[in-house]
């Protein structure tokens, strides 16, 4: 059987062609201290504590967006007490910018280049072949250099650099061109083709197939790899850039503990040590320098406190049930009193009908006056009685109602987060104006930025607490979870309401302090909820596990 | 890439094909540089393919031969789809050679025919690929857009 013949198939997977384009690395300045990991290590390293005193002259509410919003410890307290216990949901990670990623590769290439006495191009090809496992590469190479070079597509090592040549009487086996003066090219194996065909070939591999690290000689059965130097000689700068991007990608993609930030136009990669098998116990939320927060496990937007598997199930359920659930997420409802159409235009659930001034709750349509202190009634779904459940039809209706209850609240927070953001953008514009007209400085209006970010993050968390609650087992842990959820929800709704005030009122120093305090409180409630839930997930076994019922 | 690129190369190939083709391979039609048809036969007396002729259809893109051609077996009143663990009953062929990663631009129509011919000659299994029925029912993609996962090189 000839070597070019068939190979067997196991599975068939339909795909629409080459995978989606990767982020384009562009070098940007690095300030490296933004990740929580760097922060954590700076705090815990002990000898290098940052001066905390600059926090103490403020109310502590202005910029407590991060998790570090516990009351500042007294001055003079022991350093090892300041070294706070790491909160349970916090995981460590590092953000790398394109230049960092390049540098890591260069360092490895230089090391291999020196230790093994091979060129940098060859070191790079070998490292990629060994998926950047330097130790294994060196070990294997020391042991059997010839086999290693051959396997990696570097069979014959020669010193002369690649160049374009004109060969008299040459005919290209790819395009059948044979005119005089034809530029030709070959890598070390000597399989020679015209430069045009080589360029076509490389462009096909790079552009259409997204290939870079393992582009082989075009000759049939020749597995010699085309190195970066040969490539640079042949292709356009544009293609060359793409090629190096793809090479960078293989570095990140070859390493399990590295992942690209999925934000559009972001070129950073994140390093995190969380293992796949632990994803039922931890939710590895990471945040990029670009401020995008996402789950390292599944690359979706931050979904704390819900574990990846739950998120997957929930999203699938929502997609399956989307038709039934669609009406819920609609932006308009009728006023329960006068039936005029009301559009929700802010994130708060406290609705006031413009026509009849009726005040009601957007979620349950109940009277707002009954809600003030008992938001409680609106966040918990009361299980229907057993007699009703006996009837199969009723059962399915109850289960649909149950799902809709949680979906409603999930979708509501998703939508409210969007609306809060819209309001912030409007407010931001007005604040700029006010800054110009009044004496307020840029720094003085930043509390609105902090409030907006807190609303976004907290709603994101609340949204997932409802998906989480849908799968929640009823046990003695449940109540704590629901209480935490209720506390956070109340805090968020009241901050959202303050936030919606007209700009003129926002200038009021009293309201400003209130907003700052509420912002801080929201962040604190969120930390408590995430911490309690994460601890339970990490420790919970059997019926003590919050999710014992469903997953 | 200009269509001329493929045309020039296919013109050369056609010239050579008109002169001579290996035994068991015959040109049926080549009216343009987009689609050609060829017949192949297995030369030994492998009982699976004895006295049978199979029709192959080649389709060329403008990037041929940088890109592989699309090659399928065609079912006609007097042409069946050969039985083979890498040939689906709708004529789609699962071979490394015809996929981007296995293709080399120095391959040509003749060499593809010879490889397929030899793939049949060497086969003893009277069976379709696993999952054939489901694949044939569900597949709406062109062969070039399907990702086959190759798991052995033994056939
Ligand atoms: Zn050529
Ligand atoms: Zn070669
Ligand atoms: Zn990013
Ligand atoms: Zn996840
Ligand atoms: Zn009304
Ligand atoms: Zn309500």
UniProtKB/TrEMBL annotation, chain A:
SUPFAM superfamilies: RING/U-box (SSF57850). The keyword ATP-binding does not apply. It catalyses: [E2 ubiquitin-conjugating enzyme]-S-ubiquitinyl-L-cysteine + [acceptor protein]-L-lysine = [E2 ubiquitin-conjugating enzyme]-L-cysteine + [acceptor protein]-N(6)-ubiquitinyl-L-lysine. The keyword Cell division does not apply. Residues 168-382, 172-220 form the RING-type domain. Pfam families: Ariadne, IBR, IBR_1, UBA_ARI1, zf-C3HC4. This is RBR-type E3 ubiquitin transferase. Residues 48-73 have a biased composition (Acidic residues). One of its GO terms (molecular function) is zinc ion binding. Gene3D superfamilies: 1.20.120.1750, Zinc/RING finger domain, C3HC4 (zinc finger). InterPro entries: Ariadne, ARIH1-like_UBL, E3_UB_ligase_RBR, IBR_dom, TRIAD_supradom, Znf_C3HC4_RING-type, Znf_RING, Znf_RING/FYVE/PHD. Residues 1-77 are annotated as: Disordered. Keywords: Metal-binding, Repeat, Transferase, Ubl conjugation pathway, Zinc, Zinc-finger. One of its GO terms (biological process) is protein ubiquitination. PROSITE patterns: TRIAD, ZF_RING_1, ZF_RING_2. Its EC number is 2.3.2.31. Residues 1-10 have a biased composition (Polar residues). Signal peptide: none annotated.
UniProtKB/TrEMBL annotation, chain B:
Keywords: Ubl conjugation pathway. Signal peptide: none annotated. SUPFAM superfamilies: UBC-like (SSF54495). Residues 5-155 form the UBC core domain. PROSITE patterns: UBC_2. This is Ubiquitin-conjugating enzyme/RWD-like protein.
């Amino acid at each position: 059987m000839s070597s070019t013949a068939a190979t067997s198939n196991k599975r068939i997977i339909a795909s629409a062609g080459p995978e989606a384009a990767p982020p384009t690395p562009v070098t940007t300045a690095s300030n490296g201290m933004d990740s929580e990991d760097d922060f954590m290590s700076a705090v815990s390293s002990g000898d290098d504590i940052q001066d905390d005193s600059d926090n103490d002259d403020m109310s502590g509410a202005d910029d407590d967006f991060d998790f570090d919003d516990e009351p500042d410890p007294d001055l003079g307290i022991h350093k090892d007490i300041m070294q706070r216990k790491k909160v349970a949901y916090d995981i460590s990670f590092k953000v790398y910018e394109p230049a960092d990623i390049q540098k890591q590769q260069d360092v490895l290439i230089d090391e291999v280049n020196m230790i093994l006495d091979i060129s940098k191009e060859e070191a790079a090809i070998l490292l990629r072949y060994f998926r950047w496992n330097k130790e294994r590469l060196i070990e294997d190479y020391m042991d059997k250099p010839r086999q290693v070079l051959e396997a990696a597509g570097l069979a014959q090592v020669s010193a002369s650099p690649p160049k374009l040549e004109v060969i008299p009487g040459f005919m290209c086996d790819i395009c059948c061109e044979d005119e005089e003066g034809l530029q030709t090219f070959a890598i070390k194996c000597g399989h020679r083709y015209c430069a045009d065909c080589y360029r076509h070939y490389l462009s096909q591999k790079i552009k259409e197939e997204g290939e870079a690290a393992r582009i082989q000689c075009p000759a049939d059965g020749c597995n010699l790899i085309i190195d970066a130097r040969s490539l640079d000689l042949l292709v356009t700068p544009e293609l060359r850039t793409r090629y190096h991007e793809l090479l960078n990608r293989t570095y990140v993609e070859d390493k399990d503990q590295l992942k690209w930030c999925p934000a559009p136009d972001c070129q950073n990669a994140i390093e995190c040590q969380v293992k796949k098998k632990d994803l039922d116990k931890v939710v590895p939320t990471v945040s990029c320098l670009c401020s995008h927060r996402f789950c390292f496990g599944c690359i979706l937007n931050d979904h704390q406190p819900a574990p990846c598997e739950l998120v997957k199930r929930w999203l699938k359920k929502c997609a399956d049930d989307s038709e039934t659930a669609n009406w819920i997420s609609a932006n308009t409802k009728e006023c329960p009193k006068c039936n005029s159409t009301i559009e929700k235009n802010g994130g708060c659930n406290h609705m006031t009908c413009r026509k009849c001034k009726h005040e009601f709750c957007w979620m349950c349509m109940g009277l707002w006056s009954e809600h003030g202190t008992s938001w409680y009634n609106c966040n918990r779904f009361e299980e229907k009685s057993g007699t009703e459940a006996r009837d199969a039809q009723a059962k399915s209706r109850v289960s649909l109602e149950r799902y809709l209850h949680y979906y409603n609240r999930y979708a509501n927070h998703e939508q409210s987060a969007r609306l809060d953001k819209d309001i912030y953008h409007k407010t931001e514009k007005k604040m700029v104006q006010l800054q110009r007209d009044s004496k307020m400085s840029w720094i003085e209006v930043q509390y609105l930025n902090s409030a907006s970010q807190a609303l976004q993050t907290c709603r994101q968390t609340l949204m997932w607490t409802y998906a989480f609650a849908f799968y929640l087992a009823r046990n003695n842990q449940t109540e704590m979870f629901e209480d935490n959820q209720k506390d956070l929800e109340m805090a968020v709704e009241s901050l959202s309401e303050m936030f919606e005030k007209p700009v003129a009122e926002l200038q009021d120093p009293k309201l400003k302090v209130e907003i700052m305090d509420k912002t801080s409180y929201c962040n604190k409630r969120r930390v408590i909820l995430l911490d309690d839930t994460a601890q339970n997930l990490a420790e919970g076994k059997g019926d003590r596990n919050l999710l014992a019922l469903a997953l | 890439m200009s269509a001329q690129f493929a045309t020039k190369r296919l013109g050369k190939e056609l010239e050579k094909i008109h002169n001579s083709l290996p035994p068991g391979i015959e040109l049926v039609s080549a009216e343009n540089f987009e689609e050609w048809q060829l017949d192949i036969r297995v030369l030994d007396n492998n009982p699976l393919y004895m006295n049978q002729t199979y029709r192959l259809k080649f389709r060329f893109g403008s990037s041929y031969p940088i890109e592989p051609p699309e090659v399928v077996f065609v079912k006609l009143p007097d042409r069946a789809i050969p039985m083979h663990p890498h040939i689906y009953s709708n004529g789609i062929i699962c071979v490394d050679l015809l996929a981007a990663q296995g293709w080399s631009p120095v391959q040509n129509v003749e060499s593809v025919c010879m490889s397929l011919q030899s793939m049949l000659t060497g086969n003893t299994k009277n069976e379709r690929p696993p999952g054939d029925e489901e694949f044939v029912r569900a597949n709406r993609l062109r062969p070039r857009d399907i990702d086959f996962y190759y798991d052995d090189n033994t056939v």
